[in-house]
Amino acid sequence: MRPASDVVMIALMAAIGLLFGLLFSPSSAWAVLGLAVGVALGLAMARYRVRPSIGPAVAAGGLVGAWIGREIVRALCLPGSCTTVEVAGAIFTAVGSMVGIGLVVALVVRSFDEYREGGDTRRV
Q1: What is the b/e burial string over 30-56, where b = at least 16 CB atoms within 10 angstroms of the residue's CB?
Q2: Which residue in 68, 59, 74, 66 sits closest to 94, CA to CA?
Q3: Nearest of 41, 25, 19, 32 to residue 98 by alpha carbon
């Protein structure tokens, strides 16, 4: 079952990368870059045996964080004047959102695993 779920996760990561490549810029270069990053992340997640339900959620959260950070800087600067600051803002918020979402997801998954292992522990 693991190889099939790995293929699904790689496909989801590729789709997420493609979508956000197109959201950053409608040019085909950004779409190809997003697709390549998505496939690379999917392969890394498959290699390290990340659960298929966790990896794409954390990556999508990081990409949304990057998009939000870029748009905030873009709103504060004059058009075309702060390209490097836009990139820095996108990277900073992407890392922050991935860490935050990753921590929450890890704690939730851990609590679900403990609940399943515990069985029926009600005492009367």
Answers
A1: bbebbbebbbebbeebbeeebebebbb
A2: 66
A3: 41
DSSP 96: H
Average pLDDT over residues 45-56: 82
Rounded to the nearest angstrom, the gap between the alpha carbon of residue 15 and the centroid of all alpha carbons in its chain is 11
Q: Name the DSSP class of 124.
A: -
Q: What share of the chain is helix, strand, coil (3-state, %, to 5)?
A: 80, 0, 20
**CA pair distance 48, 18, nearest whole angstrom:** 22
Render 1-33 in DSSP notation, one character per residue.
-HHHHHHHHHHHHHHHHHHHHHHH-SSHHHHHH
CA distance 78 to 67: 18
Residue-wise pLDDT tens digits, 5-35: 788 888 888 888 888 888 777 778 888 988 8
